[in-house]
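hey so i finally got around to running the thing on that chain from the lab meeting. sorry it took forever, my laptop kept dying and i had to restart like 3 times. anyway pasting the input first so we r on the same page abt which one it is
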Amino acid sequence: MKLENLFEMSYFINLDERVDRLDDLDAEWYKINFYPERFSGIKNSYGATGCYLSHLEILKKARDVNKNVLIFEDDVSFSDDCRQVLSEALDELWGLDFDMGYLGGNVLRPFFQTTKHWGRLSHCQSTHAMFFNKKFLPSAIDFLEKNSPSTSRLCIDQLYADYVVPNCKAYIIIPMIAIQKSDFSTIEGKEMTYQIPIERYNHFLVRK
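ok and heres what got predicted. didnt touch it at all, straight out
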């Protein structure tokens, strides 16, 4: 199965000022043979709020047309074997009753292998490569609208990890195929390295 067969909408979030990331992204989309639409990231003085608003707007777009949606951020990087893993994993996902899921993430609690290529999550941070089932969009949007970073003081990935993922059918791909590039983060305002989540993922995976 191909990504476009399961996800009728797809976007990658990119701030207008971060044109430096677009050339690198072309190589990443080639790896997965898939080209999502660019979403002009919403700028906010508090970077976490801009990220939150961008994700929320995309979820609303998908809800309004009742379509599954796949969301990337512009610092995503795929593994060399991602295309073969995705092909098999999407066939399996078609048969799962899922609400949301991740192609990579920062896992801080045990997660449990369900199929060859999917594990059931109890926690997952990072929003660089994730997806939603259209049936779950109203619930996700309702929660986010009631818990914005300005009131909760939590970033959107923390909101998902602590409150949404533990209370829904959330999955992550096995093996993880999407990481965040080590780069300057507009949200954090500094250089970030993202190798530690790979170690955490391997540590917390409970294989069946």
